[in-house]
Amino acid sequence: MTDTSPITYAAAGVDVEAGDRAVELMKAHIEATHTPQVVGGFGGFAGLYDASELKRLPRPLLATSTDGVGTKVAIAQAMDIHDTIGFDLVGMVVDDIVVAGAKPLFMTDYIACGKVEPARIAGIVSGIAKACAEAGTALVGGETAEHPGLLGEHEYDVAGAATGVVDASAVLGPERVQAGDVIVAMASSGIHSNGYSLIRRIVRDAGWDFTRDVPEFGRTLGEELLEPTKLYTAPCLDLVTTFNGDPADQQIAPDAPVRGFSHVTGGGMAANLARVLPHGLMATVDRSSWAWPEVFSVMAELGRVPQADLERTLNLGVGMIAVVAAEEASGVVAHLNTAGQRAWVMGEVSEYSPQDVAGAGDDFVQGAKGVDGGGVLLTGHYAR
């Protein structure tokens, strides 16, 4: 017999009231990120941001970026810990903007889930808001979408987009990099948000549970793998202002000491560094200048992962890189360390020809993610 009872939105699996409760729970966290530039408050169809401050720059350029967290969310779901994943989202988005020397102004987020559980959604957004506050970026809006039948009841995914500004004279990038420049590494807080498909496969094949206590970590495997992404926004922007100057006061010279940044995300350190080097120049990176954090050593040994594959996938302890003038390198390292960001010199830039890297094999990377840029040669052995 055919069921003739009416079909409601709730019967289809969407709980509008739960969505409203989630909004109320997250409201205070979002409003805490609002600066005086945020217009109209919370709850509008679109977030409004007063861009009058851009008038202080001679030629302001808008910078934008979007990203997600990837399969790291599966570990957050397995551990039922949801208030740290927001740092991963913000880090992946705003620190891509910083690479151009731009200041992130505002961000929006998107959460898709199988079923709205208000406390869980509020936990995710609280992490996003705390990270935005640390980065000095207003969280001006977002969307939570319930997708029953597409996602499981306890499944969700997150994504975000941000907009920043930089003056045309202050844009950082390959055109500033010169032979003789120095490569400065900034330490990561762990795996960050890239390579988790590899990590989860290693853990699965080893038969490890995320609740397993790992002596090398001093905590459970899941807690270690959920270590939030380090945010580099503040130290990088402070570095640019300190060494290059403020474009509102003066035009930034093409040979200003901070030449560029590379955010080490998907593809590993060498491939991302190659993207910010000009064609014809090569960074020679000394592996012995740092030791891997324990999480990388444990995962590499557990999965018997070849070093070349690790280098193409994980950050191996380096989350952000600065390319700087040689005469300012020691000052840059000291400045970052004083600000609480561990940093060290890891290599230098030089001219090269194909003959110079013949036979280098996996130790040499040139061109990545559609950018026909410079090259990176990895030398030596890690200090682990």
TrEMBL record:
<keyword id="KW-0547">Nucleotide-binding</keyword>
<dbReference type="Pfam" id="PF02769">
    <property type="entry name" value="AIRS_C"/>
</dbReference>
<comment type="pathway">
    <text>Purine metabolism; IMP biosynthesis via de novo pathway; 5-amino-1-(5-phospho-D-ribosyl)imidazole from N(2)-formyl-N(1)-(5-phospho-D-ribosyl)glycinamide: step 2/2.</text>
</comment>
<keyword id="KW-0067">ATP-binding</keyword>
<dbReference type="GO" id="GO:0005524">
    <property type="term" value="F:ATP binding"/>
</dbReference>
<keyword id="KW-0436">Ligase</keyword>
<dbReference type="GO" id="GO:0006189">
    <property type="term" value="P:'de novo' IMP biosynthetic process"/>
</dbReference>
<dbReference type="Pfam" id="PF00586">
    <property type="entry name" value="AIRS"/>
</dbReference>
<dbReference type="InterPro" id="IPR036676">
    <property type="entry name" value="PurM-like_C_sf"/>
</dbReference>
<dbReference type="InterPro" id="IPR016188">
    <property type="entry name" value="PurM-like_N"/>
</dbReference>
<dbReference type="GO" id="GO:0046084">
    <property type="term" value="P:adenine biosynthetic process"/>
</dbReference>
<dbReference type="GO" id="GO:0004637">
    <property type="term" value="F:phosphoribosylamine-glycine ligase activity"/>
</dbReference>
<protein>
    <recommendedName>
        <fullName>Phosphoribosylformylglycinamidine cyclo-ligase</fullName>
        <ecNumber>6.3.3.1</ecNumber>
    </recommendedName>
</protein>
<dbReference type="GO" id="GO:0004641">
    <property type="term" value="F:phosphoribosylformylglycinamidine cyclo-ligase activity"/>
</dbReference>
<dbReference type="GO" id="GO:0005829">
    <property type="term" value="C:cytosol"/>
</dbReference>
<comment type="similarity">
    <text>Belongs to the AIR synthase family.</text>
</comment>
<dbReference type="InterPro" id="IPR004733">
    <property type="entry name" value="PurM_cligase"/>
</dbReference>
<keyword id="KW-0963">Cytoplasm</keyword>
<feature type="domain" description="PurM-like C-terminal">
    <location>
        <begin position="178"/>
        <end position="351"/>
    </location>
</feature>
<feature type="domain" description="PurM-like N-terminal">
    <location>
        <begin position="61"/>
        <end position="166"/>
    </location>
</feature>
<keyword id="KW-0658">Purine biosynthesis</keyword>
<dbReference type="InterPro" id="IPR010918">
    <property type="entry name" value="PurM-like_C_dom"/>
</dbReference>
<dbReference type="InterPro" id="IPR036921">
    <property type="entry name" value="PurM-like_N_sf"/>
</dbReference>
